[in-house]
Design brief:
This protein is of the alpha+beta class. It is built from 13 helices and 17 strands. Pfam families: CD36. This is Transcript variant X2. GO terms for molecular function: scavenger receptor activity.
Length: 506
C-alpha cells in the first residue's frame, strides 16, 4: 500500500472517531455531568470545602440603610386628618456578620451556628448624624401598651391615668439613634413596676448590635446538594408556633446566606426570616450580569403578602378572623409580644392602593423598594442582593382611650430598611475563574467535534486530490492510434521496405 492511500485512510478513521466520540459525549453530557458532580462535592458545609470559610465569614461588605418617615401634621391627625409624612434617610451602617459557635452535629450530616451581626455607623454614606437628627413618629410603646390593656377596664383606666400623668402622647419625637438602638421610656418604666416582664427600654433594633437570632441547624448538602444550606431547625424547633396552620408555621429553605448550586429558572426559592417570623419565597424574574458574572434574579411575587382571598394559603397568617389584613401587609404581633406591628415592603410596594392612599408621602417604586436576590446559577453564590422591609404600626380607635376617638384605622409607616450586598472584586475574580474552568470542561466535547470537523475537511481535500491525480495518470497512459500520414512518412521509421524472398531483381 502506498503512503498516500494510507494517509487518507488514517485521516478518515480519525475523523470518524472524533466525530462519533464528540457527538456521543455531547448527547450523553458526560463532561457536563462530571463537572456538576464535582461542584456538588465541593459546595458543602464541611471543614475543608471550597465554601465553608466564606460561609462562616462572608467577605463581601454588607450595608444596612435606615429610612424614617417623619410625621409633619400630628395635631391634624389627632383630629382625624390624613397623616402626612416625609422620608428621611438613609442612615447607613456597615454590617459585619459571621457564623458563631459553628459545630458539626448528627455525625457530621448537619452543622449548627449562630448568625451574629454587629453594626458600625458610616457618616459619609448617611444624610446626617443619628445622634442629632430628630424624627417625629408613632409612639410605639404607648400603642403596644394600649393594645394590651384594652381587654380590661381596670388596666385601661390605670394606663390612661399613667399616660396623662406622664404626658405620654400617641406620637413622640426622638433621635434616630434612640429609635434604632433604644431609649428608656417613662411609660414602660412605670408599667415595669407592676410587671417585671416588661422592659424599660425600647428601640427598633435594640439588643441587635452584636447579638444573634438564635441557634440554626443547617443541612451540609453532602447527602443531597439540593439541601445545601437548608435550615433544619431554629431555636430547636422544626416548626414555628406563631400562626394557625402548619403551612404558615413551616421553616423551609435557607436563612438567606447560602443557596444550592445548579439553580434553574423554574424553581421557587424559600427563605426563612426570623424578623418576619415566617418563611417567604421568591420566583425567577430575569437574567442579569454582575461584575461579569451571569446571574438569575429572584424576587418575591405579590402572592407572598397577598390576602387570604387572593391566596388562600395565607389564611394561616391571620392573627384572628377579625384581624386579617389585605394584600401587601402582614401583622406580626404574635412574635412581637402582642405589639401592633405590621410588616410590608417599603412604601407598601405590591400592596393595596388603600394603604398607599391613606398616608400622604407614599410613592412605591419597583427600583427602590423591591426585594431581590441575584444568584449565579452554577454555584448558587449571591452576587448581589437587596432585602427591603418596612415597619408599620396599626393605629386607630382603641376602646377605653379617649385620645384615639378621632382616629380611623390606619397602617402607619415608621421606617424601612435596605440591607444590601454586592460581591467584592476579589471574590468575583475567583467565581469567574471557576465558571471559566467549568465552561471549558463542560464544553470539551465541542472541541473534539470541532477537531473532527477539521479532520473531515482535510479528509475531503485528500480524497479530492487523490481522485484528481488518478484521473491525470489514466489520461497520460492511454493508447493513441497512428495516422496514415505518419505511416507513409519515410522519416518516421514506422515502415520498413522488405524485398520478397526469392524475388527477381530489377
Amino acid at each position: 500500500m502506498s503512503r498516500r492511500p494510507f494517509a487518507i485512510y488514517t485521516v478518515g478513521a480519525l475523523c470518524a472517531l472524533l466525530l462519533v466520540c464528540g457527538i456521543g459525549l455531547i448527547l450523553g453530557q458526560v463532561f457536563r455531568t462530571l463537572m456538576h458532580n464535582r461542584l456538588k462535592k465541593e459546595i458543602v458545609l464541611v471543614e475543608g470545602s471550597r465554601v465553608f470559610e466564606s460561609w462562616k465569614r462572608p467577605p463581601p461588605p454588607v450595608f444596612m440603610e435606615y429610612f424614617f418617615f417623619n410625621v409633619t401634621n400630628v395635631d391634624e391627625i389627632l383630629k382625624g386628618a390624613k397623616p402626612i409624612v416625609t422620608q428621611v434617610g438613609p442612615y447607613t451602617y456597615r454590617e459585619y456578620r459571621y457564623k458563631d459557635n459553628v459545630t458539626m452535629v448528627e455525625n457530621g450530616t448537619m452543622v449548627s451556628a449562630y448568625n451574629t451581626k454587629s453594626f458600625v455607623f458610616l457618616l459619609e454614606k448617611s444624610v446626617g448624624d443619628p445622634t442629632v437628627d430628630n424624627i417625629t413618629t408613632v409612639n410605639i410603646p404607648a400603642w403596644a401598651a394600649m393594645n394590651k390593656a384594652k381587654i380590661s377596664f381596670f388596666r385601661s383606666s390605670m394606663l390612661n391615668m399613667w399616660m396623662n400623668s406622664l404626658r405620654t402622647g400617641l406620637f413622640t419625637t426622638r433621635t434616630v439613634h434612640e429609635l434604632l438602638w433604644g431609649y428608656e421610656d417613662s411609660l414602660l418604666v412605670k408599667i415595669s413596676t407592676t410587671n417585671r416582664e416588661v422592659e424599660k427600654d425600647f428601640g427598633l433594633m435594640i439588643k441587635k448590635n452584636g447579638s444573634n437570632d438564635g441557634e440554626f441547624v443547617f443541612h451540609t448538602g453532602e447527602q443531597n446538594y439540593l439541601d445545601y444550606g437548608r435550615v433544619k431547625t431554629w431555636k430547636g424547633q422544626r416548626q414555628l408556633t406563631f400562626w394557625s396552620t402548619n403551612e404558615s408555621n413551616s421553616i423551609a429553605g435557607s436563612d438567606g446566606s447560602a443557596f444550592h448550586p445548579l439553580l434553574n429558572k423554574d424553581e421557587r426559592i424559600y427563605i426563612f426570616t426570623p424578623d418576619l417570623c415566617r418563611t417567604i419565597y421568591m420566583d425567577f424574574e430575569k437574567d442579569v450580569v454582575v461584575k461579569g458574572i451571569p446571574a438569575y434574579r429572584f424576587t418575591p411575587p405579590s402572592s407572598v403578602l397577598a390576602s387570604k382571598e387572593e391566596n388562600p394559603a395565607n389564611e394561616g397568617f391571620c392573627v384572628t378572623s377579625n384581624e386579617c389584613l389585605g394584600t401587601g401587609v402582614l401583622k406580626v404581633s404574635p412574635c412581637r409580644k402582642g405589639a401592633p406591628v405590621v410588616a410590608s415592603f417599603p412604601h407598601f410596594y405590591l400592596g393595596e392602593d388603600k394603604y398607599i392612599d391613606a398616608i400622604g408621602g407614599m410613592s412605591p417604586q419597583r427600583e427602590h423598594h423591591q426585594t431581590f436576590l441575584d444568584l449565579n446559577p452554577t454555584t448558587g453564590i449571591i452576587v448581589r442582593a437587596n432585602k427591603r422591609a418596612q415597619v408599620n404600626i396599626l393605629v386607630g380607635r382603641v376602646v377605653g382611650f379617649p385620645k384615639t376617638k378621632n382616629l380611623t384605622e390606619t397602617i402607619f409607616p415608621v421606617m424601612f430598611l435596605n440591607e444590601s450586598v454586592e460581591i467584592d472584586d476579589a471574590s468575583a475574580m475567583r467565581v469567574q475563574k471557576l465558571l471559566l474552568i467549568t465552561k471549558l470542561v463542560s464544553n470539551f466535547p465541542l472541541f473534539i467535534v470541532g477537531l473532527g470537523g477539521i479532520m473531515l475537511m482535510i479528509f475531503i481535500v485528500l480524497l479530492f486530490r487523490a481522485h484528481k491525480q488518478k484521473t491525470s495518470t489514466e489520461e497520460d497512459s492511454s493508447y493513441s492510434p497512428v495516422s496514415q500520414k505518419d505511416k507513409d512518412d519515410p522519416q518516421n521509421g514506422n515502415c520498413i521496405g522488405l524485398t520478397p524472398k526469392g524475388g527477381t531483381q530489377a
